[in-house]
């Protein structure tokens, strides 16, 4: 009897998990379905069976060069994340293992920058980019995306580092490890799951960032977000083409997420059951 | 033997000189069929002008406006050519944001349609070259009108349109008598409602810039529009824009549709439209006794911002893209029906074009009837047609558009919407310093 209850509970949890997962995945699924429709079918209303037309992909390919924005997306996402980790790891180390009275305030202040509406600082940032001559440059966008995501990087790493007993680092110091050795040879290997999930999550965030990437780039540094935006049309039908462009833009990050999901989940649940 | 390195050196030097002299221009544009076609023909431009490198930035219409405005206001110089509407050109030209355009005699500026040219001219200087232009007209199904026992008059009135729409409506067969824009926005439902108001004798402001929503003409316009959509419009009309109505019409679900003349080619193309052989066109309706056909006039234009670093190369491109020779090139490659319409008189005298485009004659008639210097039959202090050519209109138009959409959605009454439109617009205009 007890076994039967357990099985039914498990089945209902499984069904509930599938329903939630499908709900979350549905917009992406419907985008993929729409990309395989003709423009007429796409706007005709809700329909889950496409005519499997590849016309939209062909048109997107003919209209815009995919390689350049794709390369820019990779450079900006990976570059900003690596740069963010280089700054974030020492910062999180300091806050986790040598906290001061103001550490919590500093963390809160860093997080508060994420609460500011981006549009409010558009003109100042625009002018800074202009004056520094980094408008539409990969360097400018990499630094900007790094700064945008730095609070999240520091917060995530801080949380992971706090789970590591300080005694281990003390032992390393007693064994003669210097600061660099302590961070690089002791702390980092122990926090690999946390660092990996921070890295993956920030690559995803940087890949998907559209407000700044659309507004501060034109041709040289425009990533896939700008590529998608260019298919919206004020007159004429564009849903299928827009969906095809979106699928082409999200496919790489979706595949990366799929392959690294174990690492991502492990990192995100690190210390959660303590 | 010694000649080879010398020749190679000379070739490298020459290549360096050519690349050093090459000017790169960046063009900001929107994703419209005609613009994409122009983008595809860049190689033709490069064949004639190998020293000019062309870079395209295609943006969504609202983002394009926002980016271009920021760029001009801060002197960013990111773009050498802007694709902007005839709403922006006179405002920006007056503010000194755009360079005046002067073309060679071969370009034949006098061939431009007078209504379009007038909208791009400030103090006798042309600030934008029209790439394509449009007005609005009535598209209707000949079979459904015949079934309703009616004949479309040469100069239809709103009273006739209302009667015909109700008679053509057969909701059990999925046919709506009329499809009209309902989605909120200054360039969405307000393009229709503002031009409709003009043709009912209403105006946005009187000569002292006082809003006129409390006048009977506005009430009559909005009541007519709301009743018509209720009796003969499609379901969920308050979220329909150009694209949604286009689809409904192409699928045979609308008896009539009043919208931009650029829709003419979409509804009469058998590859896209199931009713291509049953479509006819008529001029924009007006209220009986009011001599005004809405004055809807829009053009997408190419203009050079003062911040451009390659103004000469930009002008060369604009001259190429808006010249008569460009039209002929597109006709040769893609057929006359695909040439950008609505900018030059000569196009409407070209029999090849008139044969290929059954909507052309009525589109020209609509453009000729639109007078943006006199939008309303009442004396007004502004120019425009489906918009008011003042910088504040984008915000005011969108707010009023939301109020109108709420009426169509059944969330508000005509009287409430107009009262709110009046008070909001009064406040906005006072803040902006009008009428002081």
From TrEMBL, chain A:
InterPro entries: BP-dep_ABC_trans_perm (IPR050901), MetI-like (IPR000515), MetI-like_sf (IPR035906)
Annotated organism of origin: Amaricoccus macauensis
High-level lineage: Bacteria, Pseudomonadati, Pseudomonadota, Alphaproteobacteria, Rhodobacterales
CDD domains: TM_PBP2
Keywords: Cell membrane, Membrane, Transmembrane, Transmembrane helix, Transport
Listed SUPFAM superfamilies: MetI-like
Name of the featured protein: Sorbitol/mannitol transport system permease protein
GO biological process: transmembrane transport
GO cellular component: plasma membrane
Ranges that cross the membrane: 12-33, 74-95, 115-134, 141-161, 183-205, 238-259
Membrane topology: Multi-pass membrane protein
Domain spans labelled ABC transmembrane type-1: 70-260
Superkingdom: Bacteria
Entry's family note: Belongs to the binding-protein-dependent transport system permease family.
PANTHER family, per database record: INNER MEMBRANE ABC TRANSPORTER PERMEASE PROTEIN YCJP (PTHR32243:SF18), MALTOSE TRANSPORT SYSTEM PERMEASE-RELATED (PTHR32243)
Cellular compartment(s): Cell membrane
TrEMBL record, chain B:
Transmembrane segments: none
Entry keyword Lipid metabolism: no
UniProt KW Transport keyword: no
Keywords recorded for this protein, A-Z: Signal
Record SUPFAM superfamilies: Periplasmic binding protein-like II
Lineage: superkingdom: Bacteria
Record-linked InterPro entries: Bact_solute-bd_prot1 (IPR050490), SBP (IPR006059)
Compartment(s) of residence: Periplasm
Span of the signal peptide: 1-22
GO CC terms, sorted: periplasmic space
PANTHER family: ARABINOSE-BINDING PROTEIN-RELATED, DIACETYLCHITOBIOSE BINDING PROTEIN DASA
Family: Belongs to the bacterial solute-binding protein 1 family.
Protein name, as recorded: Sorbitol/mannitol transport system substrate-binding protein
Organism the protein comes from: Amaricoccus macauensis
């Amino acid at each position: 009897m007890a076994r039967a209850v357990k099985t039914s509970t498990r089945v209902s949890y499984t069904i509930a998990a599938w329903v939630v997962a499908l709900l979350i995945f549905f917009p992406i699924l419907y985008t993929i379905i729409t990309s395989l429709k003709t423009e007429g079918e796409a706007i005709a209303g809700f329909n889950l069976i496409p005519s499997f037309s590849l016309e939209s992909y062909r048109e997107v390919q003919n209209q815009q060069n995919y390689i350049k924005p794709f390369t820019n997306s990779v450079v900006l996402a990976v570059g900003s994340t690596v740069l963010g980790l280089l700054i974030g790891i020492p910062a999180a180390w300091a806050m986790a293992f040598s906290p001061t009275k103001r550490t919590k305030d500093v963390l809160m202040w860093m997080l508060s920058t994420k609460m500011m509406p981006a549009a409010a600082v558009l003109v100042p940032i625009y002018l800074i980019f202009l004056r520094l001559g980094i408008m539409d440059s990969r360097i400018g966008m990499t630094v900007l995306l790094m700064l945008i995501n730095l609070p999240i990087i520091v917060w995530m790493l801080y949380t992971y580092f706090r789970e590591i007993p300080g005694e281990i680092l003390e032992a390393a110091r007693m064994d003669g490890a210097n600061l660099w050795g302590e961070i690089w040879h002791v702390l980092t290997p122990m926090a690999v799951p946390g660092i990996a999930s921070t890295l993956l999550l920030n690559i995803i965030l940087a890949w998907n960032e559209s407000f700044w990437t659309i507004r501060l780039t034109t041709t040289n540094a425009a990533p896939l977000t700008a590529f998608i935006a260019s298919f919206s049309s004020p007159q004429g039908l564009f849903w299928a083409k827009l969906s095809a462009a979106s699928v082409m833009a999200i496919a790489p990050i979706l595949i990366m997420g799929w392959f690294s999901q174990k690492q991502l989940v492990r990192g995100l649940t690190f210390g959660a059951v303590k | 033997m010694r000649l080879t390195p010398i020749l190679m050196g000379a070739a490298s030097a020459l290549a360096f000189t050519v690349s050093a002299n090459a000017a790169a221009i960046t063009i900001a544009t929107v994703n419209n069929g005609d613009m994409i076609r122009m983008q595809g023909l860049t190689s033709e431009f490069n064949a004639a002008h190998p020293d000019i490198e062309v870079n395209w930035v295609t943006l969504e219409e609202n983002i394009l406006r926002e980016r271009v405005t920021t760029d001009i206001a801060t002197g960013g110089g990111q773009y050498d050519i802007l694709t902007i509407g005839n709403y922006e050109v006179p405002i920006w030209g007056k503010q000194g944001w755009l360079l005046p355009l002067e073309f060679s005699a071969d370009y034949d500026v006098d061939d431009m349609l007078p209504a379009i040219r007038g909208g791009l001219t400030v103090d006798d200087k042309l600030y934008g070259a029209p790439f394509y232009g449009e007005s609005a007209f009535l598209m209707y199904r000949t079979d459904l009108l015949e079934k309703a026992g009616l004949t479309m008059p040469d100069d239809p009135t709103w009273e006739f349109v209302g009667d015909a729409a109700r008679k053509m409506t057969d909701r059990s067969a999925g046919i709506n008598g009329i499809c009209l824009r309902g989605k909120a926005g200054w360039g969405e439902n307000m393009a229709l409602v503002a031009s409709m108001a003009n043709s009912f004798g209403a105006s946005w402001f009187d000569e002292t810039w006082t809003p006129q929503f409390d006048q009977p003409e506005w009430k009559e316009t909005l009541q007519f529009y709301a009743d018509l959509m209720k009796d003969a419009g499609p379901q969920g009309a308050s979220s329909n824009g150009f694209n949604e109505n286009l689809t409904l019409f192409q699928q045979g679900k609308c008896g009539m549709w009043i919208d931009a003349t650029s829709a003419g080619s979409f509804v009469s193309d058998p590859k896209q439209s199931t009713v291509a052989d049953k479509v006819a066109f008529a001029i924009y309706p007006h209220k009986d006794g009011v001599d005004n056909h809405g004055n809807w006039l829009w053009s997408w234009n190419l203009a050079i911002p003062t911040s451009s670093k390659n103004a000469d190369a930009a002008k060369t491109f604009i001259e190429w893209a808006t010249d008569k020779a460009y039209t002929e090139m597109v006709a040769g490659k893609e057929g006359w029906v695909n040439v950008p319409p609505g900018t030059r008189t000569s196009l409407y005298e070209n029999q090849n074009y008139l044969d290929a485009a059954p909507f052309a004659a009525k589109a020209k008639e609509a453009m000729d009837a639109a007078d943006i210097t006199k939008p309303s039959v009442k004396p007004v202090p502004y120019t425009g047609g489906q918009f008011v050519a003042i910088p504040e209109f984008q915000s005011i138009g969108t707010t009023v558009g939301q109020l109108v959409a709420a009426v169509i959605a059944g969330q508000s009454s005509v009287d409430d919407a107009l009262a709110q439109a009046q008070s909001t617009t009064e406040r906005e205009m006072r803040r902006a310093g009008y009428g002081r």
